[in-house]
Specification:
This protein is mainly alpha-helical. It has one domain: Four Helix Bundle (Hemerythrin (Met), subunit A) (Up-down Bundle), CATH 1.20.120. Helices cover about 50% and strands about 5% of the residues. It has five helices and two strands, in the order H-H-H-H-E-E-H. Strands 1-2 form a two-stranded antiparallel ribbon. A hairpin with a 3-residue loop joins strand 1 and strand 2. Helix 1 packs parallel to helix 5 and helix 2 runs antiparallel to helix 5. The chain starts with a helix and ends in a 6-residue tail after the last helix.
Length: about 160
């Protein structure tokens, strides 16, 4: 496993979010800062089998998606998750700080979940069944994508 990517997910991304203001404008996309944080939280809940979406990728296309996952390629700006509505979901937490704390807890739960059973796999609606190392790669791509979206990392 890529320890640097795991550390960034576990600590670096949250540190970047400490510099995100509630009224920060996205460089692209429709989500506000809190919606983005809650969206990322949901993504971690998918990886720990707490939130479920149907598989939308045809079985024969999964190897191509896995190839992207294992590459150094980033998500393109304005990449939209096919299982989410066109408009961002309404916020669920009272404020950005609460949303960031929930994300911190959910990220920690992700690591604990897979430490308890390192051979476990869980389903992603686009990439199919992923193991811990594959989830780390995907979470890293996802959190850096959203960090760039809000100017927390260079584009």
């Amino acid at each position: 496993m890529d320890q640097g990517k795991a550390a960034f997910i576990r600590e670096g991304f949250i540190t970047l979010l400490d510099h995100l203001s509630p009224d920060a404008e996205a460089v692209w996309g429709k989500m506000n800062a809190q919606q983005m944080v809650e969206h990322v939280t949901g993504f971690f809940m998918v990886s720990t089998d707490r939130l479920h979406f149907p598989l939308v990728t045809p079985e024969e296309h999964l190897p191509k998606f896995k190839e992207f996952l294992l590459s150094d390629k980033q998500f393109r700006e304005n990449t939209k998750a096919p299982v989410l509505p066109e408009e961002p979901l309404p916020t669920r937490q009272p404020d950005l700080a609460s949303a960031v704390q929930q994300l911190r807890n959910t990220i920690e739960a992700f690591f604990v979940y897979f430490e308890a059973d390192p051979a476990r796999t869980t389903a992603h609606p686009v990439f199919g069944w992923l193991n811990f190392e594959e989830w780390v790669l995907l979470h890293y791509k996802h959190v850096t994508h959203h960090a760039r979206q809000f100017g927390l990392l260079p584009r």
